[in-house]
Specification:
440 residues; mainly alpha; 27 helices; 0% strand; disordered N terminus
């Protein structure tokens, strides 16, 4: 547990058990952190709880009375006792108390070697496929500690030999480390086919590490020639439509190996730079010229179907001559295209102040934000009076934000920064931004 309040709460839990409250009532639905909290809470209670430190006579009482006669609540306290001999004595009867197996897991990393050894022997004799899936989150949590590797090795051995359905239970674990481990083991032991791997990689909300692992494994298991022919689509389709750019880029790259490079062309205009780069590679390897494609896409400045990704993709060629196609796009009807045109000009190092500053009055906040970023290096060349007009309270908020940022960036004397702060006074958030933007 992290702080004093947490330890007090855990100590209160230990106090409930000491009063005879049944374990299932004190811990109705325990998770891995609850068991660790109980372990620490018992020791906290022994030092700081009601009655002060435990007396020396409590240990002999526990040992001579026989821990096997204790109920689950008191045996749980014995398993967490500060005296190693009490903990060791409590392990033998714990093997017949399934509810206490999580505390046996914790004792496998005990600082006292005799306790640790006995707990490991007990867990090794008890752990099967069902218990392995139930205890996996706690084993991973304990495994982070200095002596926790044993439990992870045991878990791995049991799950490798367990039926597939036991491992699949862990795919839905709320603990990211457990899910990643389960999928990694499933991939290593060939328990998932390429189609299922691809669907997992493309699933919304899935852990990005799991997505990347499954996408890579799906493509590694995908043969170059697949019969029937539409089986390729069952794997590539989910990857190419995935929200995660790493999954899409993996699918695009695989188009070359599977003999479908022509399908990479639309991904030249993907919203992700990584996917665009992979698409350019596939197109070039097939003998095509992505830059010719980009120029053809951007040649019509009023095309309502122009993809913003094609605009920034053109600039990624770093050919300043392509700026002639980008400048007209600053007037495109789609805000996303205008914003990408500004970003493209900045990529080409051609976003000079005089030709761009009119876009600070753009009705789309995204365009104004991109324009502000592009103009920051040229802020000192912008007329102060013109910026002050746009920082006035009656202007749209996104325009004021841009003007105040540029004002604070252009001024070396501090006078304009002071004016900017005054203009932002009516809006506390704007004033805070102006303070942050001010050069040190």
């Amino acid at each position: 547990m992290g702080g004093e309040t947490d330890l007090r709460d855990a100590g209160a839990l230990a106090e409930l058990l000491a009063r005879g409250v049944p374990l299932a009532q004190a811990l109705p639905d325990p998770g891995p952190y609850d068991w660790l909290a109980l372990d620490e809470g018992v020791r906290w209670r022994s030092r700081y709880g009601p009655g002060g430190p435990q007396s020396g006579g409590e240990r002999p009482a526990l040992l001579h009375a026989g821990t096997a006669l204790l109920d689950d609540s008191r045996l749980a306290l014995a398993l967490c006792h500060r005296d190693g001999r009490v903990r060791a004595a409590a392990l033998h009867p714990a093997k017949t108390r399934p509810a206490l197996l999580p505390l046996v897991v914790i004792r496998c990393a005990d600082w006292a070697e005799p306790v640790r050894t006995r707990a490991r022997e007990l867990l090794e004799a008890t752990l099967d496929g069902d218990w392995a899936t139930a205890l996996a989150p706690l084993l991973f949590l304990v495994g982070r500690g200095e002596r926790g590797a044993f439990g992870l090795r045991l878990l791995d051995g049991v799950l490798r030999a367990a039926p597939d359905d036991r491992l699949r239970v862990l795919f839905g674990s709320p603990e990211p480390g457990v899910r990643r481990y389960a999928y990694r083991l499933a991939v290593e032991t060939w328990r998932l086919d390429p189609v299922e791997l691809a669907r997992t990689a493309a699933r919304r909300g899935e852990d990005p590490v799991v997505q990347h692992l499954c996408a890579t494994a799906a493509l590694a298991a995908l043969p170059d020639v697949f019969h029937p022919a539409d089986a390729h689509e069952a794997v590539l389709g989910p990857l190419l439509s995935a929200r995660n750019p790493r999954c899409r880029s993996a699918g695009v790259t695989a188009l070359r190996r599977t003999g479908r490079p022509q399908r990479a062309e639309p991904f030249l205009a993907d919203r992700s730079s990584v996917v665009r780069a992979c698409a350019r590679y596939v197109v070039r390897q097939a003998g095509g010229d992505p830059w010719t494609w980009y120029r053809a896409q951007c040649a019509a400045p009023d095309d309502p179907d122009l993809a913003p990704g094609a605009v920034i993709g053109l600039a990624e060629g770093h050919q300043q001559a392509d700026a002639e196609l980008l400048w007209p796009l600053l007037a495109h009807p789609a805000p996303a295209v205008r914003a990408r045109a500004v970003a493209g000009l900045r990529e080409l190092d051609l976003a000079h102040g005089d030709r761009l500053r009119r876009l600070l009055d753009d009705p789309a906040p995204g365009v104004v934000r991109e324009t502000t970023t592009a103009l920051l290096p040229w802020a000192r060349g912008l007329p102060a009076e013109w910026l002050l007009e746009r920082a006035a309270p009656e202007r749209p908020r996104h325009v004021r934000v841009a003007a105040l940022r540029l004002l604070t960036a252009r001024d070396g004397s501090g006078e304009l920064r002071a004016v900017a702060r005054l203009l932002a006074d009516a809006d506390p958030e704007l004033r805070a931004r102006a303070e942050r933007w001010a050069p040190r």
